[in-house]
């Protein structure tokens, strides 16, 4: 059977792993010796498309046509809070796709759908892998944050389809990390995965019983990641500069790009040392033409104070997920750190005091997810009884809009998947011949605060008095967390099945 590679499609960086002939999992190395490829796409002034390192290298000079952190936008409605907040932060342009059900990004005078951008990044990872392996790569297990909605998962699958890469299975990043930790060790443990990457935060409590990986509860924050830690430092530097020189640099895109780059590098430096310089020479000029510099020093302690609230937000999610899983700190055998931002020392300290023991060093924070995906991909090609069994859950409730904008829950948060549930719908006025539903995912009682997944329309109900029709509507969530809906009219026997995603094509 053809090889199935594992791809970690990250907000900041992506990477791939594969299983070699001897059954060992390895990362696919890239030119510069590292195995990560920046998840960045750009169009240069000649109209050439650049992906990965090439795109990152020209980012400072071409911020408007350089698309980064696009994973935060994939599968989102244009009107969602996430899109709103992102449009304040990024330099590239965004606009509404058809029906506002998606976001389009403008780069080099062209509009791209989010799945097209993800397709380019996946395509680059695939090319690097196939060049290295010397074979064509047609199948992959791709990881997504546990907190991804149904619609976001579907968008990743679509991205694969656009480049004829079969995404054989989508698995959750924390689950993949648990696989990297537990496969082949014959352990029976409960572990907590703390996954703080560039853009999102995920937590899962997973019970490992040899080759069975059962997610007990999962949760996260789709708007909490390394970029927010950078942002805290950027704001601090801007404030400091404003007080010192009475100049607001926030409206100067070139200065902002230099500050952003340095903020991230300084943040990373501060994970290894106590103090780091923060200097940007000639960042701007006064009205008299005098050059101004940023010349500061940031201590680890300052940075830890600046970001203390962000770390607290992660701990609040950890507590909630542990409550959902009905476990206490002492029930957790190991706390596994995943994602680049989890390297920050103050995160280690706060987790150590929360759990009464330091986090595990058993998995590499940048590699565990791709490795877990590759292990799972390999197990799918394995005919022996070494198959890995994943028992996952949905991260947020799924349901439909009820009267007055209320959210009628069909699946509760952390419902196990695969799963199917049905409801019986009826007509609410005389002569009504169709049933229209809006499907949402989220944890709020009001649909306005949840994410719209799509519309479901069942037509052809026999005309009759209100309440006379009986339509059984089935919600079916597959192992990947993707929803399909079907309906059947009990009187006419008419049936229909649909993928709930709102499609444009
Ligand atoms: P990921 O999405 O897992 O690649 O995580 C990338 C994020 O981790 C980015 O925001 C990086 O700035 C951040 N990061 C990488 N290395 C470190 C480090 N040593 N200390 C703190 N943050 C880091």
SSE inventory with pairings:
Blueprint: E1 4-9, E2 13-19, E3 25-27, E4 37-38, E5 41-43, E6 49-51, H1 53-57, E7 66-67, H2 81-89, E8 93-96, E9 103-107, E10 110-113, H3 114-133, E11 139-144, H4 150-162, E12 166-172, H5 173-182, E13 188-196, E14 201-209, E15 212-221, H6 226-245, H7 253-269, E16 275-285, E17 291-299, H8 300-306, H9 308-324, E18 334-338, H10 345-355, H11 368-380, E19 389-393, E20 398-402, E21 406-411, E22 416-417, E23 419-425, E24 434-441, E25 451-459, E26 471-477, E27 483-489, E28 495-499
Parallel strand pairs: 1-11, 11-12, 13-18, 15-19
Antiparallel strand pairs: 1-2, 2-3, 2-4, 5-6, 5-7, 8-9, 9-10, 13-14, 14-15, 16-17, 19-22, 20-21, 20-24, 23-26, 24-25, 26-27, 27-28
Helix pairs in contact: 3-4, 5-11, 6-7
Features:
alpha+beta, binds adenosine monophosphate, 505 residues, disordered C terminus, 3 domains, 28 strands, single chain, Nucleotidyltransferase, domain 5, 11 helices, Substrate Binding Domain Of DNAk, Chain A, domain 1, Actin, Chain A, domain 4
Overview of this structure, please?
With 505 residues, the protein is of the alpha+beta class. It folds into three domains: 4-224 and 313-392, ATPase, nucleotide binding domain (Nucleotidyltransferase, domain 5, 2-Layer Sandwich); 226-304, Actin, Chain A, domain 4 (Alpha-Beta Complex), CATH 3.90.640; 394-499, Substrate Binding Domain Of DNAk, Chain A, domain 1, CATH 2.60.34.10. Helix content is 28%, strand content 33%. The strands form seven sheets. Strands 1, 2, 3, 4, 11 and 12 form a six-stranded mixed beta sheet that branches. Helix 3 (114-133) packs across helix 4 (150-162), helix 5 packs across helix 11 (368-380) and helix 6 packs across helix 7 (253-269). It is globular and about 80 Å long. The two termini are 32 Å apart. The model is unreliable at 501-505 (pLDDT under 50). Residues 10-13, 197-198, 226-227, 264, 267-268, 271, 339-341, 343-344, 366 line the site of adenosine monophosphate. Adenosine monophosphate binds next to helix 6 and helix 7.
């Amino acid at each position: 059977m053809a090889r199935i590679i594992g791809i970690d499609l990250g907000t900041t960086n992506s990477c791939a792993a594969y299983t070699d002939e001897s059954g060992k999992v390895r990362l696919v190395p890239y030119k510069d010796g590292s195995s990560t490829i920046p998840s960045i796409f750009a169009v240069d002034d000649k109209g050439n498309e650049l992906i990965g390192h090439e795109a990152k290298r020209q980012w400072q000079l071409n911020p408007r046509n350089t698309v980064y952190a696009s994973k935060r936008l994939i599968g989102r409605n244009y009107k969602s809070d996430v899109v709103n907040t992102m449009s304040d932060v990024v330099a590239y342009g965004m606009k509404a796709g058809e029906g506002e059900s998606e976001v389009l990004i403008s780069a080099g005078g062209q509009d791209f759908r989010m799945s097209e951008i993800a397709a380019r990044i996946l395509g680059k990872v695939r090319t690097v892998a196939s060049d290295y392996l010397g074979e064509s790569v047609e199948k992959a297990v791709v990881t997504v944050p546990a907190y991804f909605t149904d619609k976001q998962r579907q968008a990743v699958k679509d991205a694969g389809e656009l480049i004829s890469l079969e995404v054989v299975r989508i698995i959750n990043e924390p689950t993949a990390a648990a696989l990297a930790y537990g496969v082949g060790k014959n352990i029976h443990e409960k572990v907590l995965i703390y996954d703080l990457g560039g853009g999102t935060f995920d937590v899962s409590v997973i019970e490992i019983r040899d080759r069975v990986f059962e997610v007990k509860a999962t949760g996260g924050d789709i708007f909490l990641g390394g970029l927010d830690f950078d942002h805290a430092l950027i704001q601090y530097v801007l404030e400091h500069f404003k007080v010192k020189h009475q100049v607001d640099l926030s409206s100067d895109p070139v200065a902002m790009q230099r500050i952003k780059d340095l903020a991230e590098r300084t943040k990373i430096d501060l994970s290894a040392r106590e103090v780091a310089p923060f200097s940007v020479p000639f960042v701007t000029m006064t009205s008299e033409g005098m050059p101004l510099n940023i010349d500061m020093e940031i201590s680890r302690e300052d940075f830890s104070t600046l970001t203390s609230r962000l770390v607290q937000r992660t701990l609040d999610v950890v507590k909630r997920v542990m409550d959902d899983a009905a476990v206490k700190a002492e029930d957790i055998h190991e706390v596994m750190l995943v994602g680049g931002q989890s390297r920050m020392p103050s995160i280690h300290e706060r987790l150590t005091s929360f759990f009464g023991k330091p986090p595990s060093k058993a998995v590499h924070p940048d590699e565990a997810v791709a490795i877990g995906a590759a292990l799972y991909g390999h197990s799918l090609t394995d005919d022996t009884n070494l198959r890995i069994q994943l028992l996952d859950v949905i991260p947020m409730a799924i349901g439909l809009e009820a009267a007055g904008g209320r959210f009628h829950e069909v699946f509760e948060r952390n419902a196990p998947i695969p799963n199917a549930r049905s409801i019986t719908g009826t007509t609410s006025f005389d002569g009504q011949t169709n049933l229209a539903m809006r499907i949402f995912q989220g944890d709020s009682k009001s649909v306005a605060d949840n994410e719209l997944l799509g519309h479901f329309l069942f037509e052809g109900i026999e005309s009759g008095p209100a309440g006379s029709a009986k339509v059984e509507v089935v919600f079916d969530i597959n192992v990947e967390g993707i929803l399909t809906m079907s309906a059947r009219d009990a009187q006419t026997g008419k049936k229909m099945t649909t993928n709930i995603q709102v499609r444009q094509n």
